[in-house]
Amino acid sequence: MLDCFFNPKSVAIIGASSNENKGGYHILKNVMAGFRGKIYPVNKSYTEISDLPCYPDLASIPGNIDMAIYFIPAKELPHTVNECAEKGVKGIIIESGGFDEAGPEGHRLQKLALENAAKAGIRLWGPNCMGFIDVNKTHVFSFIHSAVWPDILRGGNVGLIVQSGMLSAGFLLHALQEGVMGVSKACSIGNKCDINENDLLEYMIKDKETEVIACYLESLVDGRKFINLAKKTTKPIIVLMGGRSAQGAKAAQSHTASLSGNYSIARGAFKQAGIIEVFDPAELTDMARAFSKKMTCHPVGGTAVLTFSGGAGTITTDLMDDCGLELAKLSDKTLSSIAELFPAWNKPDHPLDLWIAIEQHGFEKVFQHSLTAIFNDPAVDSIIFHAYATPLIKQEFFDELMAIIKKHKKPVVLWVEGRKDFADYLRDLAENAGLPAYREMGRCVTVLKGIKQHFAKKPAD
Amino acid sequence: MDLIKKTVKDGRKTLSEYESRLVIESAGVFVAAAALTKTKEEAIQEAEKMGYPVVLKGCSAELSHKTEAGMVALNINSPEEVALVFEELTAKMKNLDGILVEKMVRGSREFVIGLSRDPSFGPCVMFGLGGIFTEALKDVTFRIAPLSMEDALEMIDEIKTKKLLGEFRGSPAVDRNALARALVGVGDLGIKYDSIAEIDINPLIICGDKPVAVDALVVLK
Question: Which of B118, B144, B154 lies closest to A261 in CB terms?
Fold first, then answer.
């Protein structure tokens, strides 16, 4: 249904330019960088751009066109849609602004274009958006600056649906540069005059390359449909909802002409559908990153906290209590097994502050021994593990830990504390092994809460 | 239910309290014992049957703000009082369907249940704290209909004042399943009758361990 966008054989770029300061230059450059089909720049000011013949209008293009990217002023859209119809174009990504979000004239243009498109059976994406990137195919159908992405683009299983242009680019660049999360498709949907979050959610639920779906939305066109789609899938869906407050709703309206609606209802509905709600963009990518690691969990017990600092243990326990995450009731067997590494004058308690044992036996031995005991405790369904940033821990440690995690189906989230360079080193080791690692304690707690919520979901038939 | 179809056919937008009570009762919500009476004698007879104290209310579909209109009399304890209040209420307003005699429900824990239609989500059920703090605390939660029992139980656990639903100052914990069934039932009404625009059950008083609707309003589209 959306194949004209995700699998086009030919693309026309209306508003292609050779001027590096213009979006039309970057769209062409981006398409040329990874798209292997026919590319037709359209602009009457040029006969050639970047060694490609440039056409004055769509009618002059010799071949068929599956999809067009539109990047010229808003007022030209209604008649351009008709010209696209004559060429048999199936979908248009409108990346220009100046439509519904810009007042009555823009509203009129968007409406007229939509009517023309509907008559011809053309699907419209946008307007007022940054198009999309299909990372695994290297299709960059966006005016994102052509120099910022090639060295960091990393394919993966996270699909993004974002109702904001710069934010989707920012999200993506941030997430990709962190180097620890791969993206399947990043879609910016703007004013969503035709293609909306439901079309993309439906597509991504079926899409084999997408295993985690993360959304930033400023409105829900048909909330009931969104919820019903979400209810039926086992893929985690994470939503950051914009316009929760009265002031935020006003901002959303001028941003993407969105009427935010009643957030209290959306909130309840998300819970019903097992959708994980987050509250800022970094939380969205951090949550998606954890799920991208394909963890599993049987949420039947509590969370164990292993730390090298009593303070960190206390704070983590407080944060867990704030969001209703329960501290596991460790068995006597588990505690006495861990006590073997403790001096006789000190007994371990939960949250487990292992520092005294570490002083005596070193990190690796203590972590390994206590983690094994914890994993075998049936009261534990998940673990927050505070790893002190030290270069003494090697990749093998995490690889072995990962093997135990897979066996027990108990997710582990890592908090990495210490010198930045050591922390980065340790985080890379952990993430390479498949363990999500964060620099904030609070993030470990919210991520684990999200994981437990997701695995408690019973998908509807 | 024929009552709703009939009201739509009559071109009316609201149901009287008596009619509204019948609708929510059919959906599984406990309502206080009540009878719609046409005469003083009938009112006294019903009051004696259910036992004092009782509440007398003017009943009409045109009467959506009974308290403000002075059409509610609480804590009536004798047949003489019933007769007096009956006269007063009927004198105040013409075209009443009758006087509703209702068993006075006592309980200090008040909640609200609502049904509304959202442009994006369709029929939604609201549950929250009722009584005098409703506006100040805005302690409410929503789910979209239809609700599963799990959804309804989750709503009950979600409000900030959920402690009021447990054992509280000598009162027993609320029958959670009865409350959840009421929420599910109200949601089902929204699914079953497209013509219902909203339902307002306020207050829902916790009487012993049972949630009992003391006032109800059904508004049609």
Answer: B118
Q: For residue A446, give both structure tokens.
A: 């919210």
Q: Is A220 on the interface with B (CB under 8 A)?
A: yes
C-alpha distances in Å from residue A40, one per residue of A11, A13, A31, A53, A54 = 6, 6, 10, 7, 7
The CATH 3.30.470.20 portion of chain B extends over 107-220
Q: Tell me how far apart the alpha carbons of residues A9 and A65 are, in angstroms, rounded to a whole number.
A: 8
Rounded Cα gap, residues A188 and A240, in angstroms: 14
User: What are the tokens at A250?
Assistant: 């006003």
Q: B122-129 and B210-213 as β-strands: parallel, antiparallel, unpaired?
A: unpaired
Q: At what angle do helices B176-192 and B17-26 cross, to 10 degrees?
A: 110
Sequence ranges of chain B with CATH classification 3.30.1490.20: 34-103
Question: What does chain B come to in residues?
Answer: 221
Kindly report the backbone phi and psi dihedral angles of residue B209, in degrees, each rounded to the nearest multiple of 5, phi listed first: -110, 5
Closest by alpha carbon to A80, among A135, A117, A38? A117
Homologous superfamily in CATH for domain B34-103: ATP-grasp fold, A domain (3.30.1490.20)
For residue B116, the chain A residue with the least C-alpha distance is A265
Decide: A151 and A118 in contact? Cβ < 8 Å.
no
Mutation target among A272, A322, A458, A461 for the B interface, most CBs of B within 10 A = A272
Domains of chain A from N-terminus onward:
1-128 (3.40.50.720), 129-292 (3.40.50.261), 296-455 (3.40.50.261)
When pLDDT is cut at 50, 70 and 90, the band that residue B146 belongs to is very high
- Tens digits of residue pLDDT in A287-335: 999 999 988 899 999 999 999 989 999 999 999 999 999 999 999 999 9
Closest CA to A314 of A404, A441, A217, A194: A441
The H or E element containing residue A383 is strand A380-388
Q: Give the pLDDT confidence score for residue A168 in this predicted structure.
A: 63
| Chain-centroid distance, C-alpha A447 | 14
Instruction: Measure the CA–CA gap between A198 and B84, rounded to whole angstroms.
Output: 62
Task: Write the residue in A219, A221, A227 that is nearest to B144 by C-beta.
Answer: A227
CATH number of B107-220: 3.30.470.20
**Of A11, A1, A292, whose CA–CA distance to A139 is shortest?**
A11
Q: Residues 6 or more apart from B147 whose CB is under 8 A from it? A: A272, B125, B155, B183, B184, B187
Radius of gyration from C-alpha coordinates of chain B: 17
Residue of B nearest to A270 (CA): B143
For chain A, the average pLDDT equals 92
B144 interfaces chain A, CB cutoff of 8 Å: yes
Strands A139-141 and A132-134: antiparallel
Ranges assigned E (strand) in A51-114: 52-53, 67-70, 91-94
Q: Give pLDDT tens digits for B114-124.
A: 999 999 999 99
* Residue in A with minimal Cα distance to B139: A264
Question: What are the structure tokens assigned to A412, written together?
Answer: 């582990």
**Residue in this structure with the two tokens 């508004």, named with its chain if needed:** B219
pLDDT band at B182 (very low <50, low <70, confident <90, very high): very high
**Mean pLDDT, rounded, for A19-30:** 95
pLDDT band of residue A46 (cuts 50, 70, 90) is: very high
- CB-based contact B36:B97 (threshold 8 Å): yes
Please report residues of A whose CB lies closer than 8 A to that of B140: 264
**CB–CB of B58/B92 below 8 Å?**
yes
